[in-house]
Amino acid sequence: MSDAEARHPFSQDKARFGEIGQHMLTELETYIADLDGKSMDRRVPDDVRRHLMSLPLPDAGQQPEEMLEFLRTQILPWPITIAHPRCYAWICAGIAPMGALADLAASIMNTGLDGYDHSSIFLNVALGRWLMELTGFSDGEGFGVLFSGGSAANLNALTAARHKAAKDDGWDIRSEGLQGGRPGFTIYTSAEAHSSIQKCAEQLGLGSACMRLVATDQQFRLIPDALRQAIRSDLDAGFRPMCIVAGAGTTNVGAVDPLDGMADIAEEFGLWFHIDGAYGGFGGLDPDYAKMYRGIGRADTLTIDPHKWLQAPVDCGALLMRHPERHAEAFGLKPDYLMSSSEDSAPWPYEHMFQLTYGNRALKTWAVIARLGRSGVRDLVVGCNRLASLLGTLVEEAPDFELLAPVSLSIANFRYVPEGETDGAALDELNDAIADEIGRTGEAHMPTTKVRGNVALRACILHYENSEDDMHHLIDLVRRCARSVSA
Ligand SMILES: Cc1ncc(COP(=O)(O)O)c(C=O)c1O
After folding, report:
1. Atom of ligand 1 nearest to the CA of 154
2. Residue 352 in 3-state DSSP?
3. Best label site of 157, 235, 247, 281, fewest CB within 10 Å?
4. What pTM, to 2 d.p., does this model score?
5. Residue with the nearest Cα to atom 5 of ligand 1?
6. Does the beta carbon of 317 lie inside 6 Å of ligand 1?
């Protein structure tokens, strides 16, 4: 090593990697141990906020010890405790230590997953197959690409769908754009679809007005006859139906749309069939839900997020592509300065997506699935679903609680209803206040949503350490918080 290299701060750190790394690991070990034991209310104190936002740019480089101290005192104490088992908010996963360590290995190797024939590119092929097998999308036919999350995966799918629809009509959207005054594309989904689907429509230049929000039944599942009718009336009105988007585990209530029936309709009209299974794509592993997932193997594309139920460290989404060549047609562009995959290569993700350089999410995805195995993933899904179902039963049995949607997968929506209270606005206000109070207790985290216009306490059970005790604790906690806000 030259003197210059020896003097460079990063060269010094490489030489001390084991020693510095050990200190970091010790801090993280403490972080993990503290997460369960301490209050979940870790709001950043005002002085820390001000300190962080006004940090001066250091003139001289800092030493690793000083930097570790900064992380220890200023950053690690103030997370959102999303990885805590009693965080029932949104769709949050726990800590997957092997996933995190594999991610560290990816950072040290620093080889992106965009392309070139390195080990992770080949591993990525197997991961796509693993996800296809776990979800029932296929036995391995197709290709899986890892994205930052469900939003990015959905955008890739709908971009490819738009390209295909134009191609089927004999024109090329990549060269012509949307300037030709052609019949407007339309997208069919339900009002339960994740907001990213609307954002996709907007990003794709189709406008949110292209969204057809098809009616749902009592279980919040899209009604196939209404879908068929919507497509027919759009055709009559001169629109160009582009694709159908089903939810397999919708965000708010966990509903699984009738996939098989929707696949029939997609086939009937020659439309792209996309399933957004970012959250619930593994739900078919639960024998109680397997029937509902019939038809998942007929989708053109399936979004499935390893950073949700698989607990991969964020960020980690995936899109399973039945026809990878369609994505290559929609995205492939090879300037002289880039290499292309050859016949000996595994498919290169960058040839199927918008991004070029992107992080090696293959290692963390591999780590979480390899650590669990097929049976571990199934047990996790079944276990979470059972707990949500228990929570639903506890709610239904309690005279002062009301279930606001049928429990589906691992999501339960309910509200606290004190005896004699029938005023909707008062109940909304009370349940919002209860959710805030839950946050203040530091015992759990469970913000509200709305179900059919009513404020709901929404619990999404996704953590591998949740137990029946947690469900009883949650009921008790809601009651205690209701008492203290009423007082
Ligand atoms: C069904 C569904 N689709 C898409 C998304 C967006 O995923 P991400 O936040 O990973 O972009 C979510 C997020 O919760 C989701 O539940």
Report:
1. 4
2. helix
3. 235
4. 0.97
5. 150
6. yes
465 token code pair: 């350490």
Least confident of 254-263, 420-429, 470-479: 420-429
CB of 449 closer than 6 A to ligand 1?
Answer: no
Spatial distance between the Cα atoms of 382 and 380, rounded to a whole number of angstroms: 6
Residues 6+ apart with CB under 8 A from 439: 40, 41, 445, 447
CA of 229 relative to ligand 1 center, distance in Å: 28
C-alpha distances in angstroms, 433 versus 239, 456, 481? Answer: 46, 11, 8
Predicted confidence at residue 4, as pLDDT, reads 61
267 Cβ partners below 8 Å, 6+ apart? 273, 298
Considering just the CA atoms, what is the radius of gyration of the chain in Å? 24
> Which residue is associated with the tokens 């049995």?
397
Q: Are the beta carbons of 194 and 278 closer than 8 angstroms? A: yes
What is the distance between the alpha carbons of residues 211 and 188, in angstroms, rounded to a whole number? 6
Is the backbone peptide bond immediately before 400 cis, with ω within 30 degrees of 0?
Answer: no
Which amino acid is present at 181? G
CA distances to 111, 305, 355 from 115, in Å: 9, 21, 11
Ligand 1: residue whose CA is nearest its atom 10:
149
Check if 194 has its Cβ closer than 6 Å to any atom of ligand 1: yes
Checking if the pLDDT of 94 tops 70, the result is: yes
Q: Which residue minimizes the CA distance to atom 4 of ligand 1? A: 150
